[in-house]
Amino acid sequence: MPPRRAVPPPGQRAQQGPPGSPPQGFRQPGNRPVPPPGREPDLITHHAHNGTDDFGRDPYDDGYDDAAFNEFADDVEPQDELDEKGKKVLTPAQRKKRRWKIIRRVSYAFVGLFFVVPAIAFVITYFLVDVPTPDSIKSLQNQPITYFDANGQQLGRELPPGGDRQLLKPGEVPEVVKHAVYSAEDATFETNSGFDVTGILRAVWNQVSGGQGGGSTISQQYIKQATQNDAPTLTRKWTELAKSFKMNNQQSKEEIITSYLNIVYFGRGANGIQAAAKAYFNKDAKDLNASEASLLAGLIQGPGRSENQAYAQKRWAYVMDQMVANKWLRADERATFQYPTPIAKNANKEQNSGKLTYQVQQRIKDELAAKGYDENKLFSSGAKIYTTIDPAAQDAAEKAAADGMKGQTDENLLNALVAVDPKTGGVLAYYGGPELVKDANGKDQIGQDRANQARNPGSSVKAFDLTAFLKMGKGLGETFDGSNNRVLGGRTVRNAGDSASCGKDCTVAKAMEISANTVFYDMVLNVTKPSRVAEAAKEAGVKVAPDGKSVLYTDDNNISLGGGGTAVTPEDMAAAYSSFANGGTYHEQHFVAKLTNNQDEVEFDQNNIKTNPAFDDDASKSQQIAGNVTEALVPVINHSNLKCPSGHECAGKTGTQQYTAKDSDPKSYGDRNAQTWMVGYTPSVSAAVWVGGDGNKPLHDPKNKPIFGATIAGPTWQNFMNLYLKGKPAEKFDKVQAIGKDVNDVTTTQSKPPDTPTTTTPPTSTESSPSTEPSDTDTSTPTRTRTRPGPPITSIDPGQGNTFGGGGGVAQPPGSGPG
């Protein structure tokens, strides 16, 4: 190979000929240059001959590289390096340039997608939407609520009461009310533009992180209240923002807050601040003080919990503190205010409910509110409520309750009756006492609902003692010492009446029939333990807090005899016994079978809700347990001098709780009772009857003798069952196999009850001393007295009880049968 040409230093052009000679590549006349021997002629592709500049660039180059020919050139620069994927390897500068190019393009897309497009869409939405007026909302919310009975016949109709829709004008809402609402809902209302971006972001964060709190301004809340649309959709939120922004452009802040306070719901059926002021304090909105305004403002977030005092007080305190924080109330003024006490619920409310009783109506509303359907939604949708109330059962309940109280001379006597359908859990009849009673001044007032108040159930709780015992595999043939005056767990427990004669080897079946206290106290104390009894009661249908009002106290053994801290409502007792009647299948008690709007669109259908076995995951095992309980309760009916409806098998249990005597009481009060029960069932209906006093009252019959479960409650129950089941097909209980030791295989020597039942006098030992609430267990603690007449349950001292009045005895003549 001939040697290559010398390459000139950088920056210096190669000399191709003698000085002054023309550049090579141009033909000279008559003188064609001859290439040196052994060397190829220069190609025109060499930049020294193709007119490129000093930097090797052709100003006429079109940018396309003849890469295919480069391999044939011996003096071209090396080609770009490629990575393993065949892509060009970029220099750091090239990579940086490419990154910024990508960032710019993504930024343009982001701005377009999240700012330009939404802005255009928002403007379009802004001109398409209309802001609803309070007058238009008023007409929409005036749709009646209609109630139907179990037969589909109209039971009642309710309209928003007069005055509840009164609209205030701008300037009529006092500043203290506005400041309270701002503090509760939107502290920046006076300055924001209708929606709060930071609030929205905060709401998003709360939802993502599991926190609480929304991001809606008062303007947005007004739109939501006005449209009654709170669906968690982007479409709803988007139009809500547009409407609230438009509202702030079209109306003043004074107009907006007035409109909002005219339609917002405060609970108690009150829509608007004027109606709320009347419903809670019986005054006009202009007369509310800071404390009252704070309570109402605090209820806006939870109007369905208006009667929950703990919630209301918490919200009141929060609003008051926020008013101080926002300088709308001085701290020294805040310190002088106390929590305001509202007037009684519905004290000013008139109802248009036809045959529907007020008590049933309130229980229906309580049930629907717990499901998220408060009065505001019911009125807005023109709700149609299909109840489980059977008019025949309701009539029978009211008649039986009235008949049972005829001739009674004790003014302290009260009663309640609830009936439940075992096959559905639907409440067939509900009577909680008279709807109207006289107050101290002789004026009519709404009576209390006794069917929804918890009382000591006495021996009617023994059905749950037995359930817990059977769940452990024990049977009705097991025996216990049923002797009277037994010392158990440091307490002297005694029987009452003929149950004192159960004997040393008393079977569980016999103990249930005669209601021997010592047997069941021993059973729970030493075998099942109180917690299993409470579990069985809840499985059957007894509802404890927070879902119900009943209390199942397990820190002592008083639950075994239904005393001490244990208290159950008549509604819960009827529902729980219905689980036995239905062969161990649990159906939650309820008043509403179906809810629709005025267009008959179904909100929910209780009939489609799945049910479960009550006492065991195995349905057949649960049925066996319930059947054994029924077998034990069947003889109680006859022993209590009661009869089943003609053609129907029935079972049940009485209950009696003794009055706790005071030092100043006559000696005869020592045998008086304060609460009595009869709970029983057939396969098609379970009913609970309670007859007692408002708390610890010494009750008596017209002959001034103590009353027992079989004195008034028992005959009332029997009368109801006869009235309701008259003409209905005969029915019998399913037979099941015995659990554990079969009572038919046990041979015991039972003491024969005396021909004339007597009441055993309670022991006079210092061990037996009554408690603040009558119960069936004894305690060795000093006697306590009670100066106020009634419950609430919170006043019960769960640690004490007595051993007498356990609901199993028979009063001495001329008294009634077993209690």
Automatic annotation (TrEMBL):
GO terms for cellular component: outer membrane-bounded periplasmic space. The chain crosses the membrane at residues 106-129. Residues 39-60 have a biased composition (Basic and acidic residues). Residues 1-11 have a biased composition (Pro residues). Residues 1-66, 744-819 are annotated as: Disordered. Coiled coil: none annotated. Residues 163-323 form the Glycosyl transferase family domain. Residues 12-30, 747-784 have a biased composition (Low complexity). Residues 417-691 form the Penicillin-binding protein transpeptidase domain. This is Membrane carboxypeptidase (Penicillin-binding protein). It comes from Amycolatopsis pretoriensis.
